[in-house]
Design goal:
alpha+beta, 4-stranded mixed β-sheet, 12 helices
Length: 387
């Protein structure tokens, strides 16, 4: 393999994966606070294990009773599909340990006098887009997400019977001249009822490969390179099989490893936290650049300091590495995008309860929804990048 010809693999996990259960609950808390006060502050972590959920973190804003949050946690677990002996929406023991946001953090973030609102933390954030799929996402992560999302949809409709909520997928692609040529292997591990065996599981989930991946990319896929539950069985799953924590699937949430990640999780954080909001706007800018046609790929990096409103640096990398074009694009970004925390939130409409739906199957490569969800996936700014 040359530098331009290679194999690349990305994985996804379903909404029933223990870590994703926690992401969903943490984002529910964010949505609950923002639905009552658009400028509420939330930094929420969730732990899930055998029939137990523990919520912890910091908030500022409306007073919400523990009973309300506990009821909403049960609703999340029920919607995902867990009513098992080891983890059930009905019987899970739920603890909440939220407390007031640190005054030191609030002092740095709040606007006061001549000081504009600052970033909620220091750090680096990345955005990426490429022409590998119609959603301008890397192909392996796009197809990995789609397999599990379609399986979950049919499971909830009662079409896919015997399959339980916890599952993972993995897609390996051959790239030639840096373009996806074909899928060379697929791995699907899914929790299932004790009443069906490994062969039946494979028969049930195998069709979702063809439903998720274009025919021309899987024409040469040999069935021996499709691995379904390679350990043999997967009956014990979800938080009963493995402890879950918020923010442990950050590569799944972004670009499947095809682009860098700044290290900060998204779920459980209100949009003053630039870990989330700046990553969203970086994707927005990168996607509009690629949608404009000026580059086949675009990587954006933003850097922030806690309490400081403007980014410390803006880095742009285009596929052709044309320095003059890159400098031109950077000027356009500076002239047209307010990358302060307040500017990002206003541009993308982030002070809304729009986050639960982001907690599984990726924060990027999704279609904008009517209530403002995935606003960072719009390509309404692409024309400004065309010379």
């Amino acid at each position: 393999m040359t530098d331009n010809n290679y194999f690349f693999t990305s994985e996804s996990v379903s909404e029933g994966h223990p870590d994703k259960v926690c992401d969903r609950i943490s984002d529910m808390v964010v949505d609950t606070y923002l639905s009552k006060e658009p400028h509420a502050r939330v930094a929420c972590e969730t732990l899930a294990t055998t029939n137990k959920v523990v919520l912890a973190g910091e908030t500022r804003g409306p007073k919400i009773k523990n009973d309300e949050l506990i009821e909403k946690i049960r609703e999340c677990i029920k919607d995902i599909g867990y009513d098992q002996k080891g983890f059930s929406w009905k019987t899970a023991n739920i603890e909440t340990h939220l407390h007031e946001q640190s005054s030191d953090i609030a002092m740095g973030v709040d606007s006061k006098g001549n000081k504009d609102e600052g970033a909620g933390d220091q750090g680096i954030m990345f955005g990426y887009a490429c022409k590998e799929t119609k959603d301008l996402m890397p192909a392996p992560i796009h197809f990995s997400h789609k397999i599990l999302r379609l399986m979950a949809e049919d499971r909830k409709k009662g079409i896919l019977k015997g399959i339980e909520p916890d599952s993972k997928s993995q897609v390996t692609m051959l790239y030639e001249d840096e373009k996806p040529k074909k899928v060379t292997s697929v791995v699907i591990s899914t929790q299932h009822s004790k009443d069906i065996d490994r062969k039946k599981v494979k028969d049930l989930v195998y069709p979702y490969i063809a439903k998720s991946i274009p025919k021309e990319l899987i024409n040469d896929l040999d069935e021996k390179n499709v691995y379904v539950n390679p350990t043999g069985q997967f009956i014990i799953g979800g938080p009963d099989g493995d402890t879950g924590l918020t923010g442990r699937k950050i590569i799944v949430d972004t670009y499947g490893g095809a682009a860098p990640h700044g290290g900060g999780a998204f779920s459980g954080k209100d949009p003053t936290k630039v870990d989330r909001s700046a990553a969203y706007v970086a994707r927005y800018v990168a996607k509009n650049i690629v949608a404009s046609g000026v580059s086949d790929k675009c990587l954006i990096q933003l850097a922030y300091a806690i309490g400081v409103s403007e980014p410390l640096s803006v880095y742009v990398k285009l596929s052709d590495k044309d320095k003059n074009k890159t400098e031109h694009i950077k000027k356009i970004i500076k002239q047209n995008f307010d990358l302060s925390p307040r500017g990002i939130r206003e541009l993308l409409g982030l002070n809304k309860p729009i986050y639960q739906v982001t907690s599984a199957y990726g924060h990027f490569g999704r279609s904008p929804l009517n209530n403002g969800e995935f606003s960072w996936e719009k390509t309404d700014k692409k024309d400004i990048f065309i010379k």
